[in-house]
Structures are given as C-alpha cells and as structure tokens.
Amino acid sequence: MDLGISGRTAVVCASSQGLGRACAWELAKAGCRVVVNGRDAAALEETAAAIRAGTGAEVIAVAGDIGTAAGQQALIGAVSQVDILVNNNGGPPFRDFREVDRAAMEAGVAANMLTPIELVKLVIDGMISRRFGRIVNITSASVKMPLAGLDLSSGARAGLTGFLAGVARSVAHANVTINFLLPGAFDTRRLRSSVETAATRTGASVEAIRGEREQAIPAKRFGDPAEFGAACAFLCSAHAGYVTGQSLLIDGGAFPGVM
Q1: Tell me: the pLDDT tens digits for 146-176?
Q2: Most buried residue, 27, 123, 187, 254, by most Cβ within 10 Å?
Q3: How far is CA 67 from CA 73, 159, 161, 168, in A?
Q4: In total, how many domains does the chain have?
C-alpha cells in the first residue's frame, strides 16, 4: 500500500532502538526523509546506517537531549521543514508511588508531557501553513489501563493526551492530525530487561517469566516492534487525514474492555 508520504520529512524522537526505531524504519520504507534521535551518538549512528542500508532513504542522525531547548532546536532545525513528528521518550522507572518524590514527579512530567508539547509547538504552525501535518505521540497502554508502580508514567502521559486532545480539534481543518499510540508488551530491549530483572528477583528462569507474561496476553505473544511501526506509519499517511485525536491501543487484546 502506497502511504502517499514519499518525499515528506519525518522527525522521530528517541529512535535509536525499540519502538521509536521501528517507527523510523517504517517511515523510511514509505519514502520519507527521516531524522532519528537519541542520546547515545554511537548507537544512533548505527541505527541511522542500518535504516539507510535497509531502505535507501535519507536518514539524518541528531544526537542530544530533547528535554532541553538546545536539544529541541537542534532536532527540529536539522531540516528545513517537518511534515511528520513522532513524539517518543523513555518512561519513569517502575516504583511504588510512595517512593516518588517531587523531583521525580517533575522530571517525569517534563519528559512525558512537557517535552512532547514543546516539540509540537515548534512544528505545528508550519504544518498548518502547508496544509499537511501528522503528529503521533507514543504513550503507553497504562494510559487506558493504569498499572500500580507506573503511576507517574500513566499520569504524565494521560496529561499529554488530555492537553493535545483539544489542540487536535483546533488544527484538523488544516489537514493536520494528532494521534496517540498506546503500546502494550512489545519485544524490545526494555521489556527483555524487565523480564531478566524479574527472573533475578524471583529465582525463576528468564524463559519461565517470559512464558508466563506471554500467556497472560490473549495473543499469547509479545508484539513485534515492526507491527507497531507499521501502525505509526499508517497514522502518518495521506490516508489517515480523517483520523485525529484518537488513542490506538496496540496490546494483543490485553485490555479487557469494549472500547
């Protein structure tokens, strides 16, 4: 399927690995010029080189902390215009809410709510003037199904969703869409690290912990990051102009609800 975005320029935050990388890869396959981002310059360049080799796309690597004004300006300023923005950032670590002090709360809200909003502000007027823009925010399944221990992540990402919900409606007339992707359990390095930590803590094998978690998902497996990237690419496509302000849950059926 031709997504109709060949020649567009996409900026994908936190894309040196995991779901961000998968989104960058799929957008590159669709013909976009892609700006990838991460803090580890060496890992980021490896990702950029792999995407270039695998897709033939132009890939620009911008290493830096997007939580800073300088990092944001370097990322957005790497290209003359941004047609597609994929907001992504790591979440706060798993911990009991009693252990989350004010500094941790401020850092979590800054990373998972304020920074994405600041990036949207930097690109949205240009999108409106060109009558095309696609913004996808990677949040979490915990926005819809909060999990104890991820309270800060759930709260900050839910705040981002609420803040941008009204913005999405205000720019829809200009063919600018803002949507949210809510990932469940995907087979990423972060998930594998979590499984290994649980195995160490409980004394069970990594295989046993992984199998137990997979069996709890109706699909009986973890998600493939490529599946997530494909969903992101569709929301960024020319065919998704009538989809805005929506939260798409991708979790293999783990959320036990109707909507």
Answers
A1: 888 889 999 999 999 999 999 999 999 999 9
A2: 27
A3: 11, 17, 18, 22
A4: 2
